[in-house]
């Protein structure tokens, strides 16, 4: 199969979808890999490394899309790329369709096959291609939140762990999944006073067993959220409903109950945000203030640590990319239900229910497009 790796063009996005090591694994199986010129430089991978791994370098993004049967990316196509996606082309990337109707309609119009990292799902649950970036984003959420608690950056002027004779920062984490767990580990390691809210008692029992003594759990509900936010210094939104828009757990009216300089970090911004006043920001302009509350809502947080993120992402995506390249998307999806769950849009039809429901658009069962490969 001919595989194309374009250079990411989202603002301050330095990740690339494939490492030289991943490239070599595909090439030695007989596949052709085209890398856009300098696509890996931001992650620390030169053209020479890709050439040594067997890739070919193409100078423009247009040539990458024109030549490739499968496009592997990091972030969703943005508007300048919409017209480049071709009919019957497989695009394998993070899409987060449920929070972006123009992207959804553009990919429907392209008649391409859109396989979303974030909805590839293991039997019994677990999102293997979301986990590595969730781990990075969770750890970064605590790190960034700690920085923005500093007074010159708009925070309260509180040191995350305090010092002897002072109180540490109070950190409230909404969601005890991968993002929330990683954020809690980092905040706890900085000696903060951490509370994790979740709706699953089994998950909270697990977290209570593995977390240090400065981390506690509470049931996630409006009553408890309203009780805890007035004293919270840093609030991290870490809620995920696979493939669907995130629910607003913190409404605009709750901001009035927070102290001036409270910091909000919404990691769920890719899925619409779990804080009502959240809107996507960039690494160039990461924050804004509403009602004296600082919001950090960068939509591609792991893009700030591209080497770590690119290696972690390729480690997770490569086995699936090999399977798609070896078998084609239809046969691969029939034989691997994890990949079938990742299919969101096929040739103009939405085949992932949560995306269709988000925009009140028709939903088509994925089996319709796989029937010729079903036994």
TrEMBL record:
CDD domains: L-AlaDH (cd05305)
UniProt cross-references to PANTHER family, sorted A to Z: ALANINE DEHYDROGENASE
Gene behind the chain: ald
Enzyme class: oxidoreductase
Domain of life of the source: Bacteria
Keyword tags: NAD, Oxidoreductase
GO molecular function annotations of the record: alanine dehydrogenase activity
Keyword Oxidoreductase: yes
Classification via Pfam families: AlaDh_PNT_C, AlaDh_PNT_N
Enzyme Commission number, as recorded: 1.4.1.1
Catalytic activity line of the entry: L-alanine + NAD(+) + H2O = pyruvate + NH4(+) + NADH + H(+)
Keyword DNA-binding in record: no
Alanine dehydrogenase/pyridine nucleotide transhydrogenase N-terminal domain span: 4-137
Protein family membership: Belongs to the AlaDH/PNT family.
Protein name: Alanine dehydrogenase
Alanine dehydrogenase/pyridine nucleotide transhydrogenase NAD(H)-binding domain: residues covered: 149-297
């Amino acid at each position: 199969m001919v595989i194309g790796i374009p250079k990411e063009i989202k603002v301050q996005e330095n990740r690339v979808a494939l490492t030289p090591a991943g490239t070599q694994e595909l090439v030695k199986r007989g596949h052709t890999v085209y890398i856009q010129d300098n696509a890996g430089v931001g992650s620390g991978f030169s053209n020479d490394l890709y050439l040594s791994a067997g890739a070919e370098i193409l100078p423009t993004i247009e040539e990458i899309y024109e030549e490739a049967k499968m496009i592997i990316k990091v972030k969703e196509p943005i508007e300048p790329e919409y017209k480049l996606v071709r009919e019957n082309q497989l695009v394998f990337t993070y899409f987060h369709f449920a929070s972006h109707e123009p992207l959804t309609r553009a990919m429907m119009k392209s008649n391409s096959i859109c396989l979303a990292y974030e909805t590839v799902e293991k039997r019994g649950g677990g999102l293997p291609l979301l986990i590595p970036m969730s781990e990075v984003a969770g750890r970064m959420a605590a790190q960034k939140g700690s920085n923005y608690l500093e007074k010159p950056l708009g925070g309260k002027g509180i040191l995350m762990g305090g010092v002897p004779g002072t109180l540490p920062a109070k950190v409230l984490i909404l969601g005890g999944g991968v993002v929330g767990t990683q954020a809690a580990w980092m905040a706890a390691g900085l000696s903060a006073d951490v509370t994790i809210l979740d709706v699953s008692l089994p998950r909270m029992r697990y977290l209570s067993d593995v977390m240090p003594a400065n981390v506690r759990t509470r049931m996630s509900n409006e009553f408890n959220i309203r009780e805890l936010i007035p004293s919270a210094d840093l609030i991290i939104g870490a809620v995920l409903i696979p493939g669907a828009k995130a629910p607003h757990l913190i409404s605009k009216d709750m901001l009035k109950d927070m102290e001036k300089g409270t910091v909000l970090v919404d990691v769920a911004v890719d899925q619409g945000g779990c804080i009502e006043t959240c809107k996507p920001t960039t690494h160039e302009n990461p924050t804004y203030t509403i009602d004296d509350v600082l919001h950090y809502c960068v939509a591609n947080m792991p893009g700030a640590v591209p080497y770590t993120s690119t290696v972690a992402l390729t480690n997770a995506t490569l086995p699936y990319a090999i399977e798609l390249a070896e078998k084609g998307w239809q046969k691969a999806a029939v034989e691997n239900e994890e990949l079938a769950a990742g299919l969101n849009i096929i040739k103009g039809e939405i085949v992932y229910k949560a995306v269709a429901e988000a925009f009140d658009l028709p939903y088509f069962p994925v089996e319709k497009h796989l029937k010729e490969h079903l036994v």
